[in-house]
Amino acid sequence: MTGEGRPNSGISRRELLAGMAGVLAVAPFVGGASAEAVVLPPIRDTFHGLSAFLVPGRDRFSAHQGRTSATPGGVEAGTAAPLERTYDQAIPFPLVGRPFDLDLPGAAAIAAILNLTAVAVDPLAAVGPFAAAFANLSFERKAEVFARLERPGLADGTPVRFLINTIPTLAAFIAYSEAPVFDRATGRLTAVPVGWQLSGYDGVGDGWAEFQGYYRGIDRVTD
């Protein structure tokens, strides 16, 4: 079986057409396309789908994957924007390396890897409510995407392997961090981070009254 009851014996005409559509959708940014021909993949929808997978919530991306939570999740936390910014700053040059050979930098390269693998897992992922094939997958098939990306031998010895390994770790870290609500201009938080709510963290403390002042008036120790 190929996941969720689909046999290995063949592929339907509908699946074949959907798969072809998915390949055509990502083809412009794979295999050394010229700068003029490059069309960026749907980065924001991809990262919303990733955020929902790692920290399910009550948003539509979580609902579509079939795994939700009564509490806010990664999408509601605002994970996608800082994750995109981080990858754009960390990978300012085109990402080239087997087996993807992407002519894209930053977040676009990460989104392309996830969506290319998503279409390989399920050709029908190219058609759905979201622009990103990865976001259109069920929770179980998103897990299969990472299972394939983590297979030994895939991109080993290239920068692509390191970057693939950062995807779930970095996205989960940002989802639970202050980054989505941190105003870099003022250095202050604009709201209570969702990660604080989920973990029961009370926030930054200025100390405890018990430790203010000196013990019995002693303010120094001499030899």
How would you sum up this structure, described in words?
It is a single chain. By secondary structure, this protein is mainly α. The protein has nine helices and two strands. The protein has helices at 13-26, 43-54, 60-65, 74-77, 80-90, 106-121, 139-149, 159-176, 194-199, and strands at residues 182-183, 188-189. It has a two-stranded antiparallel sheet. A hairpin with a 4-residue loop joins β1 and β2 (188-189). α6 (106-121) packs across α7 (139-149). The protein starts with 12 loop residues before the first helix and ends in a 24-residue tail after the last helix. Residues 1-38 have low confidence and may be disordered.
Can you lay out the helices and strands and say which pair or pack?
Elements lengths: L12 H14 L16 H12 L5 H6 L8 H4 L2 H11 L15 H16 L17 H11 L9 H18 L5 E2 L4 E2 L4 H6 L24
Antiparallel strand pairs: 1-2
Q: Cα-atom Rg, whole angstroms?
A: 22 Å
Oligomer: single chain
Mean pLDDT: 83
First-to-last CA distance? 77 Å
Strand content: under 5%
* Domain count: 1
Helix content: 40-55%
- List segments where confidence is low: pLDDT < 50 over at least 5 consecutive residues: 1-38
SSE arrangement, N to C: HHHHHHHHEEH
Total count of strands:
2
Strand order of the main beta sheet, please?
A: 1-2
What is the number of helical segments per DSSP (H or I, 4+ residues)? 9
**CA-based shape:** elongated
Largest sheet: 2 strands, antiparallel
Task: Decide which structural class fits the backbone.
Answer: mainly alpha
Protein name: Gluconate 2-dehydrogenase subunit 3
InterPro entries: TAT_signal
